[in-house]
Design a protein that fits this description.
single chain, 434 residues, alpha+beta, 5-stranded mixed beta sheet, 14 helices, 20% strand, elongated, binds histidyl-adenosine monophosphate
Length: 434
């Protein structure tokens, strides 16, 4: 069916068949996050532009090239959120979510927007699951965060992953490293791409993140940040690795890992999954010990991560697979006048009238007014387990077991029909082979 309109470039519709996988992913993730003590925050999809410029960083690709920025009717500059950490920190301060507690655990799940060149695993609207731990500065917090990240991946069945880690130092040791990096790249400026030549002046650390092939030799020979760390930063990084070892989480040190956002201090990490091709980071994060203070709050160390949901689903299989919704029962109206009775019987069997019931069935009625035989074809196509016929015969409701292809015992009354069907459904749900 042709339409005059298509979905905007770089965005996708999540359709039935796939949406079930999203619902399951969200449910599993929420369950795991709650077991680690995290509570959800839902912030608006847009914020004042300045929030992202000040946190993500003026010289990052995200701010320079990828923001969806617009003016509202009063001339305020607003931006569709490209990430969730800055909005969450804003909300944390605005509503005093810390309540004076030394530790606050918060999470978010929702769409983010970046004007990037679309390809598999990279979209202009994409979803993130993000967790942020505000308050603790100790290496145990970093380890717990990475442990949570891995627990979510394992919870959805992704085991073949690599945890890459680095430390970016802090305000004590990073300036000296930045200068060493600047000198290194200045001496090889001729090899750098146009963007990196500009980065040399604005933010030389960003060059380490460049993917342009001609820049790679200069990047490969750049000094390692790990050689420039001050003692407290080095001890912190060692402490994180030791804690991960104690938890049995395998990790690799990646001295060139800098990540695409400017708010990081000390620990940064990414998790890569097999089968994702070029966009192989299913998520990443790190420590941002200055951001709360930069937003006007008290000095509050913090660490967090975000997982890209499309990439997570891609890594566990194709985005588009998923099974159809199979009804337990289709109520068949034997004659056109019986459709209202079919609706009543269906409503009873669903078991929702008395405030919801776990024992309710999934029941469909053909409201298109088709013949009884067309309704039967429709029920088989949906792979319904039973067909129930209305109006009932004088001796009760006729039931057909569509799976077995034979008639089931007639049920004398609506309550006995309901009880019998529920009993069948319960037997089936215990049978794990279904
Ligand atoms: P990020 O590395 O920019 O970090 O994004 C995290 C993840 O979001 C990526 O690893 C990827 O899975 C997914 N992602 C990013 N861009 C796209 C895209 N265009 N299409 C599809 N997926 C994408 C952050 O956003 C930080 N806020 C993470 C963080 C939280 N750091 C501390 N707390």
């Amino acid at each position: 069916m042709a339409s005059k309109f298509q979905v905007p470039r770089g965005t996708r519709d999540i359709l039935p068949g796939e949406s079930e996988r999203w619902i399951a992913l969200e449910a599993t993730t929420r369950e795991i996050l709650s077991r680690y003590g995290y509570r959800e925050v839902r912030t608006p999809l847009f914020e004042s532009t300045d929030l992202f410029v000040r946190s993500v960083g003026e010289s990052t690709d995200i701010v320079r090239k990828e923001l969806y920025t617009f003016e509202d009717r009063k001339g305020r500059s607003l931006t569709l959120r490209p990430e969730g950490t800055a909005p969450l920190v804003r909300a944390y301060l605005e509503h005093a979510l810390g309540h004076g507690d030394p530790v606050t655990r918060l999470y978010y799940i929702g769409p983010m927007f970046r004007y990037e060149r679309p390809q598999a695993g990279r979209y202009r609207q994409f979803w993130q699951i993000g967790a942020e731990l505000l308050g603790p500065a100790a290496p145990a917090a970093d380890a717990e965060m990475i442990d949570l990240f891995v627990a979510i991946l394992q919870g959805i069945g992704l085991r073949d992953v690599r945890v890459l880690m680095n430390s970016l130092g802090d305000s004590v040791c990073r300036p000296a490293y930045r200068e060493r990096i600047r000198e290194h790249f200045a001496s090889r400026e001729a090899e750098l791409c146009g963007d990196c030549k500009e980065r040399l002046r604005t933010n030389p650390l960003r060059i380490l993140d460049c993917k342009v092939p001609s820049c790679q030799p200069a990047i490969a020979s750049a000094p390692s940040v790990l050689d420039s760390l001050c003692d407290p930063c080095r001890e912190h990084f060692e402490g994180v690795k030791k804690a991960l070892d104690a938890l049995g989480i395998r990790h690799e040190t990646a001295p060139r890992l800098v990540r695409g956002l400017d708010y990081y201090t000390r620990t940064v990490f990414e998790v890569h999954a097999a089968g994702l091709g070029a966009q192989n980071a299913v998520g990443g994060g790190g420590r941002y010990d200055q951001l709360v203070k930069d937003f006007g709050g008290p000095q509050t160390p913090a660490i967090g991560f975000s997982i890209g949901m499309e990439r997570l689903l891609l890594a566990t299989g194709s985005l588009e697979t998923g099974s159809a919704l199979r009804p337990d029962v289709c109520v068949i109206a034997r004659e056109p006048g019986a459709v209202l009775e079919a609706l009543q019987v269906a409503r009873d069997l669903r078991g929702l009238a008395a405030g919801g019931s776990a024992a309710g069935l999934r029941v469909l009625v053909d409201v298109a007014g088709r013949s009884a035989s067309a309704q039967m074809k429709w029920a088989s196509k949906l792979e319904a387990r039973y067909a129930v016929f209305v109006p009932p015969d004088p001796d009760g409701y006729a039931v057909r077991d569509l799976e077995a292809g034979q008639d089931a015992p007639k049920q004398a009354t609506l309550p006995s029909l309901r009880a019998w069907l529920r009993q069948q459904a319960a037997t089936v749900s215990e049978d794990v082979t279904r």
